[in-house]
Amino acid sequence: MLEKPTVMMTDSEAAIRALAPTYAPRSLTLVKGVGSRVWDEKGNSYLDFTGGVAVNSLGHCPPVLQKVLTEQSRRLMHVSNLFHSHEQNQMAAALVDRIGPGVVFFCNSGAEANEAMIKLARRVGTESGKTEIISARNSFHGRTLAGISATGQDKVKAGFDPLLPGFRHVPFNDLSAVEATISEKTGAILIEGIQGEGGIIAAEPEYLIGLRKLTTRHGLLLLWDGVQCGGYRCGTFQSYTRLLEDLQTVEAAAFLPDAIAMAKSMGAGFPIGATWITEPLRDVLGPGTHGSTYGGNPLACAVALAVLEEIETNHWQDHIRKMGDELKFSLQQRESETGIKAVRGCGGLIGMEVHGDLSRWREQLMKHGLLLAPAGQNTLRWLPPLNVDPDDIRKSLEILDSVLENAP
Ligand SMILES: *Cc1c(COP(=O)(O)O)cnc(C)c1O
Asked: What's residue 338's pLDDT?
């Protein structure tokens, strides 16, 4: 007798053996997604607040992206940077409109967006010997060699020596530590507005104002890694606007880094990254100094433009601000008497620090139908789409409560 066909399982086991084991073993194979919901190959459904790690800002398979992908794929997908495309020009202009006067380099990921900022800083400082970059401990800037060299976490660097030289790391939110580390070799300071992978830790407003003053006084570049906290995830296009809004000072309103790295939410699931560079530095990366074959292709830029339009016409940035703040409040109410230690972040970037083993928490939540992403040693990230259904937030809290009843 023939055995029952097990094509699906056999295929996936063989396929799994073919994957480089760079990621922690994964417990689910997902086959379908709609909004905040995903389905695995066995037909189980889950509320997905991992959001593709802060990428799926409009949820899974949003109709607006289905439409633009289909239409643009009929017109023009990729031409390389030997040519202009309307979509790339329009997307560059859209970023300049929302950030400030400057120029945009397009790439395909967050690590590459940071790489361009690092190259910018090196090129600015190379003649004067001001090539060192100060970045923060506990930061994360991507997995390329420059990215891990900039990153302030030993675990991502282990075994990859020799790293790119020229990085100094200081404690985050400590202005005097930065001041004490600045030397005649320093060329730039690189920070995340909200440390994402490090556990959702926001820069203090006074720290940001202090950094801007310090960098201006010493003639240093202020490089902003907005890969995770940008793209309206925190309620404003870039997170510094939100982080600084309570100060209500002229300095806060005028705050602008010299370069900004973007990716993740930008394409809402389609790969695209970008580096905005302030106007006075527009010519630093001139012809032949940098490039990317795919970077900013018409398909990616058409998607990114549609994402901006969808968010802004529906005011999803205001929606996620409200939803996220309510979620944060609800989680804070559950603090202390449960296994929840602290709740941080804003909008669609909320970190819940917990007691006990992170993978046990994630496993328990998954069993009850909720997917959350890990961050740092002991933090779970809630990364709902910006257009999250309030009902899904309510359901996620119900799931959390059933898990808290027998805290992992
Ligand atoms: C995710 C992330 C990166 C790296 O982005 P990739 O697209 O994975 O290369 C860089 N910086 C920050 C702050 C990130 O969160």
From this structure: 76
Read off the pTM: 0.96
Q: What is the spatial distance between Cα 393 and Cα 391, in angstroms, rounded to a whole number? A: 5
Q: Is 263 in the pocket of ligand 1 (CB under 6 A)?
A: yes
Name the residue at shortest CA distance from atom 11 of ligand 1: 141
Using most ligand atoms within 8 A of CB, pick from 23, 141, 266 the residue to mutate for ligand 1. 141
Distances (CA, A) of 102 to 2, 83, 94, 223: 67, 21, 11, 14
- Token digits of residue 364: 């328990």
Atom of ligand 1 nearest to the CA of 110: 5
Select from 197, 294, 349 the residue to mutate for testing ligand 1; criterion: most ligand atoms less than 8 Å from CB: 197
Closest Cα to atom 15, ligand 1: which residue? 228
Task: Report pLDDT digits (tens) over 43-98.
Answer: 999 999 999 999 999 999 999 999 999 999 999 999 999 999 999 999 999 999 99
The predicted pLDDT at position 347 comes to 98
Tokens at 373, concatenated: 């992403």
Q: Are 169 and 156 in contact (CB under 8 A)?
A: no
Contact 151, 139 (CB under 8 A): yes
Q: Which among 196, 199, 194, 195 is positioned nearest to 239, based on CA atoms?
A: 194
User: Which stretches of the chain drop beneath a pLDDT of 70?
Assistant: 1-11, 407-408
Question: 108 near 292, Cβ under 8 Å?
Answer: yes
Is 243 a pocket residue for ligand 1 (Cβ < 6 Å)?
A: no
Contacts of 185 (CB under 8 A, 6+ apart): 129, 130, 131, 132
Q: Give the up-direction half-sphere exposure of residue 314: CA atoms within 13 A in the CB hemisphere.
A: 15
Give the per-residue pLDDT at 242. Answer: 98
